[in-house]
Amino acid sequence: MTDRSENEAESSPRRRGQGKLEAHVLSVLKGAVEPVPVAWVQERLGGDLAYTTVITILTRLHGKGAVERERAGRSFVWTAVADEAGLAALRMRKVLDAESDRQAVLASFVTALSPHDELLLRELLAGEPAEPGELGEPGEGDR
Fold first, then answer.
1. How far is Cα 25 from Cα 42, in angstroms, rounded to an integer?
2. Closest C-alpha to 51, from 62, 61, 38
């Protein structure tokens, strides 16, 4: 007798994490020059995802504020309004908004930063972001 889970693992593609899949959909959508339908996104993802899965991902991204949609007949066309960094920032903001003691959360976050990231954050807050490569590679001087 063959184990059902072994057959499923062999016949189905490897599952991707929700965050990675959202980032992939968002990067595909960023490549569009105008609002696009779900089928356009699905085609550029390689076609291994079901149409309904792509709609679900786009709807989740819309709920997070990373994409916008507008009516086009009976369906929607989609536009990216955030990139992968923006999506990560939205996730961070959601976590922060869920906590009652914002000061404690931010203090804990900042004290856990590497020296490189702390310097980068200080420069961003001062409105003087460093040029790429100016601060060295992440991890340099962290030891």
1. 9
2. 38
Any idea what DSSP says for residue 76?
Answer: E
Q: Could you tell me which of 27, 82, 72, 75 has the C-alpha nearest to residue 51?
A: 75
pLDDT tens digits for range 37-54: 999 999 999 868 899 999
Per residue in 125-140, pLDDT tens?
888 766 655 555 554 4
- 50 with 103: CB under 8 angstroms? no
CB 127 within 8 A of CB 108: no
Strand bridging mode 75-80 / 67-72:
antiparallel
3-state secondary structure of 37: coil
Render 52-73 in DSSP notation, one character per residue: HHHHHHHHHHHHTTSEEEEEET
Q: In terms of C-beta density within 10 A (0-12 exposed, 13-18 middle, 19 or more buried), how is residue 61 classed?
A: buried
pTM over 0.70: no
